[in-house]
Amino acid sequence: MARWPLSRMDNDAVAEADGEFIDLTTRLGRREAELRSVRADQSELRRQLIRAEDRASKLRWQLDSIHASRAYRAFQLLRAARRRPAAGPRLPAGLLRVLTSAGPRPSAPPDPDFRGREEHTLAGWAAYDRRDYQVAIAEAQAILDIFPDDYPALDLMQSAHWQRGDVGLTLITLRRMRAVHDSARLAATVRGYLGRARELDPRWQPRIPGSPHPVEPRDGVIMHLLGESIPYRVNGFTTSSRSTLWCQRQAGLDPFAVTSLGFPRTATASRFAPVEVMEGTPYYRIDPGADYPAAQPRDILLTDTAWLAARVGRQQRPAVIHARAGSQDFGTALVGLALREHLRRPVVCEVRSFHDAAGGDGDTDQAGPGQRGGPSDRGGPGELHAARRASEFRCLQGADLVVTSTDGMRSAVIAGGVPASQVRVIPDAVDTRRFVPGEPSAALRRRWGLTGKSVIGYVSDFEHSREGQEILIDATARLRAGGRDVVCLLVGDGPRRPQLEQLARSAAGDGVIFTGEVPHEQVPDFYSLMDIFVVPRTNDPATRMEAPLTLGEAMALRRPLIVADLPPLVELAQPGERGLAFIPGDPAALADAVTTLLDHPEQATRLADRGRQWVLTERTGAAHGQLYQDVYQELMDRWRPAGQPAGRAGKPT
User: Fold this and answer.
1) pLDDT of residue 368
2) Peptide bond just before 652 cis, omega within 30 deg
3) Is 54 a domain residue?
4) In a domain, 535, yes or no
5) Same domain, yes or no: 509 and 604
6) 145-178 residue pLDDT tens
7) In this predicted model, what pLDDT tens digit does every residue of 402-434 receive, in sequence order?
8) Considering only CA atoms, which of 467, 441, 646, 440 is closest in space to residue 551?
């Protein structure tokens, strides 16, 4: 197009310029339409390629299955015998071997629904793995801008949306995935997400079939609802639950426990009794059998749990229902509220932490469907996170009484809208029968190479970085660099163990020992190996509200204490009285505290003696059980459902 100064352009020139502009616009529109057509063709070819690969994979698996079958292998033997008559005498033995032994099972074909992390989505999955979900979504969107129906990119996007807590966007993306390639598995995934959303709906509660069935309560009978229990799972939750049940029995109550649907089958136990008795307490396993789908939607799972737990409740006729809710699952509280409506018995809800406070790098349910994981609602900033927190407090507000273990948790519960008059603090007790001071086992010292060394240590799982094992490892490295013959003993296991072992090797050489998970009955022996027990927790919302049960156990075993300066820890250790404190997250301060106790053994002995005496006075099972009996009786005195007697919390004397 000719270029003239605007002032010299006549009408003909303007018309010519307009015509050329219109022609260029038309050509651009035509090229863009061609590009869209090509991209659509590419998307369709990609879908056809995926389906062809899936069909080929399935056919290959079917062929391998035929080759592995007894009939085919017998046919091959008969054909070989026909071709080589000399092999005939060996034919009967060969046929017998084929008929009595299974052939190698071919591996199942790849899941056609979730194809995994394909090469063009790896950058997005890398962002997903480091929990940068916004970047993961942007990477997926960049692919979808070019290929709107790219299935792996849609999978990445819906996984990241779910982890952010954006329920609506997750379901929209899943609908797009179903439009590209629908399947029964993908439909089940959508149903699973809807089940989780329904669980969080304020209008929803598990419904027990049939009309309410009020029971005549038996005095002193307490129904405990637990997610899991010892001996199949050993962690702070199960250890504390076991301690509470034992203490209540010592106080004259008659507790029994009902664990979650499918447990302990879900903990890889295949053989167990329907009712297991531990320390005099029955544990009812409401197991629907191995054929029950393991990945049921949450609303169905909780409804089935409430239905089967109600059968136990009708048989045992409890005076009080005690639902123990954890940071990973408040479903027991929902089941408890449903049982209250059915059995017409009051509900006590026990809470120790909230899911956003307890969330962290140890979350094991972070995978999206494309990674064979389940829906997780932990730690995201979106609507799912807000709904989860609201549901937690709605359950607490609906309970007849709330119990927690620390003043910090009590304040958080009250701040969430529960009246202060309905919240009680009952600290953790210590089983002083098991945790009795004694000489360290010489055999264990030799086994772990601890003879003649100063041992500092911690007993905890390796689920969350807030436990602070890194701080203890760093402090050990500093002490050893300063010439101290110190060894750090870490008792426990969990998903973070490999990275902690790598850190220990690089920082402290052979100065850190990882025992792995030890049998529950041997835990006191490992405490006794430690000259100083350290609680190195970092400063975060969960650690400011709760203290580990291991702190009381260490005091019962007369172990000198060093704890991070956090409210629930110093409340128990009372720095200068029963232990020392250091600045959270400061390995140098921790190393200085360890040096103080190593250099002044008389101070360490004095702190340990005071800790043991305090446990015997304030944290015994009898005192703990009596607190529960008082709380239950208070609840029974003021709980009067229509036409029902209140009953008694304690056994008749």
Assistant:
1) 42
2) no
3) yes
4) yes
5) yes
6) 988 888 889 999 999 998 888 888 999 999 999 8
7) 999 888 889 999 999 999 999 999 998 888 888
8) 467
Count: domains in the chain: 4
Residue span of the structural domain in which 529 resides: 442-619
Mean per-residue pLDDT of the chain:
85
pLDDT at 563 (0 to 100): 97
Residue 478: CB atoms within 10 Å: 20
The answer as to whether 193 is a domain residue is no
For the beta carbon of residue 600, count every other beta carbon within 10 angstroms: 11
Rounded to the nearest 10 degrees, the angle between the axes of helix 383-398 and helix 331-343 is 40
Cβ atoms of 220 and 254 closer than 8 Å: yes
Structural domain includes residue 3: no
Cα 23 to Cα 327: distance, rounded to the nearest angstrom: 65
Tell me the CATH number at 227. 3.40.50.2000
pTM of this prediction?
0.74
Label residue 69 exposed, middle or buried (CB < 10 Å: 0-12, 13-18, 19+). middle
Name, in order, each residue with C-beta under 8 angstroms of 184's C-beta and a sequence gap of 6 or more: none
Q: Which of these three, 364, 390, 425, is where a domain ends?
A: 425
Q: Is the distance from CB of 361 to CB of 464 less than 8 angstroms?
A: yes
Phi, psi of 513 (to 5 degrees): -115, 130
- Stretches where the chain sits below pLDDT 70 are 1-21, 36, 39-40, 42-44, 46-47, 50-51, 53-54, 102-103, 105, 107-116, 326-329, 355-382, 640-653
Say yes or no: 573 and 457 in one domain.
yes
Residues 353 and 229 in one domain: yes
323, 345 contact by CB (below 8 A): no
Do residues 142 and 99 both lie within one domain? no
Q: Same domain for 417 and 454?
A: no
Q: pLDDT value at position 67?
A: 79
Q: Which of 110, 130, 148 represents a domain boundary (last residue)?
A: 110
Query: Alpha-carbon dihedral of residues 335, 338, 339, 344, nearest 10 degrees?
Result: 150
